[in-house]
Amino acid sequence: DPTIGVLAVQGDVREHLHALEASGATAIRVRRPAEVDVIDALVIPGGESTVIDKLVRAFGMHEPLRERLRAGMAAYGSCAGMIMLADRIEGGRLDQQTLGGLDITVRRNAFGRQVDSFEEDLHIRVLGPQPLRAVFIRAPWVEAVGPEVQILARVETGPATGRIVAVRQGPLLATSFHPEVTGDHRIHRYFVDLVRSP
Ligand code: GLN
Angle between the 49-58 and 62-70 helix axes, to the nearest 10 degrees? Predict the structure, then answer.
């Protein structure tokens, strides 16, 4: 089984560890640079991207993680994790940095205060015909994508219809929503498969 690290500085780490184990991976917490060397792939959980960024830098993991990503390590980012994998942020704090790798522009807290959190069934072709219940919590959306980026899902109802909320670029996967909280592990299984055969 591949060993997949969950970046464990802040956010809902435990749910991702569980979803990965249920999807056929060996899942470990990643909190220091030495742990970055032993993983085959990385998951960055939801949480608060400004805090995750600060702690990643404080724990000396910014460069080691960037280096692995540049070298082609697979990674999946959910919500704040999507922001961490994005090359560009709109609505970020001035000093906010990302790890980057995904040629996308994300907008933080894009859905606005009125719709802080919501759920929606999304039809995601790569997961099969059964819709996926997507939970959005102060979520970003993808404002713009580069030519290499594959769009996996868009919002299907309401004022944000058409907004991009799941993308893949080679070994990098990101969702605006939180599949780790629903018990439907198809996104994690899709990621583990991608780690097995990129
Ligand atoms: N709003 C958060 C951020 O900007 C993301 C929220 C989440 O991960 N659930 O980082």
Answer: 100
Rounded to whole angstroms, the Cα distance separating 107 from 90 reads 5
Tell me what ipTM this predicted complex has: 0.95
Distance 104 CA to ligand 1 centre (A): 16
Does 124 belong to an annotated binding site?
no
* Centre of ligand 1 from the C-alpha of residue 52, in Å: 10
Q: Taking 80 as the threshold, does the pLDDT of residue 7 lie above it?
A: yes
> Which tokens hold the place of 60?
């000396």
| Domain ranges across the chain | 3-196
151 is in an annotated binding site: no
CATH code at 3-196: 3.40.50.880
Q: What is the pTM of this model?
A: 0.97
- pLDDT (tens digit per residue) in 142-196: 999 999 999 999 999 999 999 999 999 999 999 999 999 999 999 999 999 999 9
